Each structure stands twice: as structure tokens, then as C-alpha cells.
Amino acid sequence: MSFKKLGVSMALSKKLESLGFKEAFEVQEKVIPHAVGRKDLAVRAKTGSGKTLAFGVPLAQLIEKKGKIQAMILTPTRELAVQVNREIRKFIECNTALIYGGVKYDRQFQALRHADLVIGTPGRILDHIERGTLRGEPEFLVLDEADKMLDMGFLPDVRKIMNSVPPRKVWLFSATLSSKITGLMKGRNFKIIEVGDEMPQKIKHYYVETHQKISKLREILTHEKALIFCSTKGMTHRIADILKIPSLHGNLTQNAREKSLKKFREGARYLVATDVAARGIDVPAVEVVINFDLPKDSSTYIHRSGRTGRAGKEGKIVNIIRRDDHDTLRKIIRELRLDVNRL
User: Fold this and answer.
1) Which of 93, 97, 117, 333 is least surrounded by Cβ atoms within 10 Å, i.e. has the fewest?
2) Torsion of CA 174, 175, 178, 179, to 10 degrees
């Protein structure tokens, strides 16, 4: 379906078409009419389903260039904030302010003075609210990847933000919708929208058991573009050092993280990362996700899987496990109803 048929203005529809967005994805078809109609929404949609446009297009239609904060987008990590800002600025006409920690305040102070849309992480945004450098009553608040905010302990900050600068409408997006997540919508007459299966059918799942995980990793790496997940910063650094590949983990500076992502986008075949650091990665060509360390729960498995098989393409997940990982793998298989084959 075209964006025009979803209630998007002619001018914005033409802009989107010029950027290559001719037909809306499922999440966009289901969300945009309700968002443009100014409804509260709780949306279950996996990473890679097209949700940035699902909330970005309505914002582009509903807010104007006034030099006054009319909307905020909260993301769990700086990488995702940067990604969302980069995508939205391709078609939105208003001023955006990118707000996250680990950088100096001066430029953020200046951006907030003229911002129509604020995009950033809960901690630094709350910091600005408490300093008095971000104030007002934005009409729209987008909570992107709310389940990851829960995992990272950000929900108290999110609640404080919602109480300090109360939005009129909230659009919540998450790969899973637990009662804790939807509890953020308490007191609101929100509509639940669920998009597709939590795990796309085009992703194939495999496992391999070994006691020599690094040797096995070397063995299974092929010409395919692969994203490798580790559970610790130390192991991530070790694999990056052994394989001489770019990495993403919390001990890196923001500049080093951006350089690693740039290398991966522009030609490096492999990237190794922790879960937190990998949020917001947008590399459509990732062909395989390798779980060097098995995630502890099905929610994290879903998020990792969202890095491949994006926009309806085929993808592959390879889990490298030890003998004592079988119970965890069986639990994930049971909860997500996966068909996992031995590699």
C-alpha cells in the first residue's frame, strides 16, 4: 500500500518515494493511520520491520518547525538514537536535537534551544530536564525498543520523564509486550498493534556443540557478512583481537564505536559485539547472526535475531553452545517455537 493511501500528505509521500520508500511495510500500514489520528499506541514489532518510519512519518506530518519541543523519541542506547535521527532527518522538515551521554553538554544546550523534536537516551534527557534545559509539554512521546529499556533498568527514568514533561500521546514500540512494559501506558486508552510473528519464518536456526568455541567460530565463519554476539565486554575484545575484526562494547569511546560501525557498513565482513552496544545497528546485508554466547532468555534471542532477515529477506542464526547450554537452548526453542537444526 502506498503512503498516500495511509493518510500521508502528497508532499511527504513524494519525498518518501524519492528516498525509495514506495510501498509501506506491514508495521507502517497498521500504525500510521492510528498515529496520524493521534491515538495512544502499544506496538509489538521486531527490529528490522520498518518501525522507524512507522513513527517517523506521522511525526513528520504532525509537527512543525516552531523552535519549540513538540515530540520526543526515547531509545535505550546512543547508537539507536543516532540511527533514528539519521533516518528521520531524511524526510522531516523540523529541527532535531540528538541527546545522549558521553559527550559534552554545550552543543546539546544549543540544539535544545531551537528543537522541535528531541531524540535521545533516557538518562541524558532526564538530566537536561532536571537542569531546566529541556522543558515543555510535548504532544508526542515515542518509546522505541521499550523492552530493552526495561532490561537496562531505564523504566524509572522513563516514568520520571513522562511525569516531568507529560506528553498528550504515547507511541510505545517493543519486540515483546509484557505487563511491565504496557504498565507505562497505565491510565491511557491505548490500542495494541501486533505485527507478524515474533520470529520471522525466513530465518533459519542452527546450533553446534563444542568445548573449543573460538576454534569452532573460526571454522564456521564463511564469506557471509556476520554479526557475532558475546555476553561480556572482555570476550568481545578478545575475539576482536584474535580475529582482527571491528568490535562494539561498552569500554569503547563513542568515536571508536562509530568507527567500528563504519567499517562494518563499508566492507568489513565480521563484527563482534555485546547486546547493549549492538542496539541500533542498521546493516541490511547481515546474512548470519552468530551467538558465540547463548542469550539467557528468549527476548534477547529475538533482538539478536532482528539483526538478520531484515525487511523480509532470508537470514540465519548459528548458536555455538557447550554441553551445559542445552537447557537454556531448549527453553528458548520451547518459548519461541523454533525449529533449530544441528549444523
Assistant:
1) 93
2) 10
